[in-house]
Amino acid sequence: MAGKLRLVIVTPEGKTFDDDVEQVVMPGVEGQLGVLPGHVPLLTQIMPGELDLKADTKGDELAVGGGFAEITGSRVTILTDMAVKPEEIDEHAVEKALENAKQALMEKKAGPEAEELMALIQRSTAQLQLKRKRRGQG
Hints:
CATH class of the largest domain: Mainly Beta
Strand content: 35-45%
Distance between the termini: 36 Å
Radius of gyration: 16 Å
Order of helices and strands: EEEEEEEEEEHH
Shape: globular
CATH superfamily of the largest domain: F0F1 ATP synthase delta/epsilon subunit, N-terminal
Number of strands: 10
Oligomer: single chain
Number of helices: 2
Number of domains: 2
Strand order of the largest sheet: 2-1-9-8-5
């Protein structure tokens, strides 16, 4: 399959994306990581943020949470705690969750609960940025 990659995204809810794409750009720990067909094998951590993909000359975006990506020359498999399309994001609900998480974090300065709150804040921020970008405000 020259010129294509198989992109599979798996969340705790199950497989959320499984299709051929021409390019994937994901949020890595050291910045954006672009993947084209023939990429060298790599296992890397991804951060909450925006995942861009190009399939059949049209682009699409997803808000993703933290996780891992396994890259081979013909396949990208992403294991993440969240993958959401912009049209699936309820901006008001995400804003409320973000505010609640920030308030709760003020009370929990350290420990596993604080880490989970930080992850929630990062996921919520990624969703809001993508939603607002799509609307032309971000």
